[in-house]
Amino acid sequence: MRTRNKLALGVAAAALAALAIWALQPQPVTVETAKVTRGPFEQTVSDDGKTRVRDRYVVSAPLSGRVDRIQLKAGDPVKEGQVVAVLTPSMPAFLDARTARELEARVGAAEAQRLRAAAEVQKADAQVEQARSDLERARTLSKGGFVSDNALEQARLALLTAQKGHEAAKFAEHAAMHEVEQARAALVRYRAESAGKITGARWEVRSPIRGSVLRVVQESEGVVALGAPLVEVADPRSLEAVVDVLSEEGVAVRPGMPARIELGSGVPPLAARVRLIEPAAFTKISALGVEEQRVNVVLDFVEPLDRVQTIGDGFRVDAHIVTLKADDALQAPVGALFRRGEGWAVFVLEGDRAVLRQVKSTRRNGTEAMIDEGLKAGDTVIVYPSDALEDGARVEVRAPLR
Fold first, then answer.
1. What Å distances lie between residue 396 and 56, 382, 384, 401, CA to CA?
2. What's the pLDDT at 156?
């Protein structure tokens, strides 16, 4: 009996010891895995941007005045030379009765100056005739020796002086006539305003190109200054895309590189090509409030836009600029790589153990990393490893969600 009790106690103690050893052993870490594969690889610089028309024309007012209401709307087609706006002289300032009398008096004064100038012209005509007669008489007497050469020269000089005086009188009469016209124009302007009528020519503003109206800047009738924008016109199908990328990513972009432009869900990407990297960067505040240095990259569409009917100026796009393309590259998920010292490392699944392995990767995109050394096709790597994972640790692969 005593022997059986001792045996039972021994078995219980051994069970408790085994349970304690099992409890103290580290539990396997649950992980997710992915395969290392071979296939096409692209390294891209991706960011959002917007479309813009290549040649935008802002039709402005060639002179100050009143513009009639513009009947065109955004999207309306226009032809080259088509009238897009009409300008008329603006209304003069309001004049009171005293100013009107002053204008009438100015007309009277200008008319008097014109009559005086006309009288001066007639007087100069008479002086020229008198000087011409005196010169003819002096010439006749000079032939008979009754007048000296000095007197003949004085008669000739007197005729020349009279002719110059006549020219000056004509110029004064011409200026007086212009002053009369100017004074009458101001008075007519005042009377037209009083009667509610504005006289003057209408100036037609025409479109410089054939295209469509992008925006009507001055839609309502009103007074505009010289050079004020009225209408924006352009060819809406002649588009390019402008994408601002980080300056440290922009150094890898070169003119001629291929790109894909995504317009939205349900629309196939459009092929594009880099035409220009602007030489100056600018500072932009990110959504997180961080200052970033960015540079604009201009992309040209390399296929017709006919299959995309709704694209136009200022549309948001997502661009992917291909900076490297390999047809057969060894690649692993980016989430499997992590920094170890100055290089990269991954955890490779071997049996139920995670084995740390150093790798070399110089190219990455948003989802895949191109592996140069350290892995081979078919290896299973652990993606998004936690801090609890160590070299040689037991792991348990999480079943994929169905």
1. 62, 11, 14, 15
2. 82
Residue 312 neighbours by CB under 8 Å, 6+ apart: 51, 236, 239
To which residue do tokens 């099992």 refer? 22
Rounded Cα distance, 90 and 63, in Å = 10
Please name the residue that has the structure tokens 């028309």.
Answer: 53
Alpha carbon distance 169, 280 (integer Å)? 66
Q: Which two tokens stand for residue 402?
A: 């169905």
Q: How many CA atoms lie within 13 A of 327 on its CB side?
A: 0
Phi, psi values for residue 246, rounded to 5°: -60, 140
Pairing of strands 368-370, 363-364: antiparallel
Question: What sign has the CA pseudo-torsion 140, 142, 146, 151?
Answer: positive
Is residue 82 within 8 A of residue 233, CB to CB? The reply is: no
Query: What pLDDT is attached to residue 195?
Result: 56
The two tokens of residue 374 are 């350290």
Position with higher pLDDT, 148 vs 20: 148
Is pLDDT above 80 for 401? no
Q: Are 343 and 389 in contact (CB under 8 A)?
A: no
> In angstroms, how far is CA 266 from the centroid of its own chain?
28
For residues 331 and 374, give the distance between their C-alpha atoms in angstroms, rounded to a whole number. Answer: 11
Residue 154 neighbours by CB distance under 10 Å: 15
Tally the C-alpha atoms within 13 A of residue 213's C-alpha that lie toward its C-beta. Answer: 22
Asked if 217 contacts 52 with a C-beta cutoff of 8 angstroms, the reply is: no
Q: For residue 377, give both structure tokens.
A: 């096709």
Q: How many CB atoms lie within 10 A of CB 203?
A: 15
Distance CA 217, CA 219 (A): 6
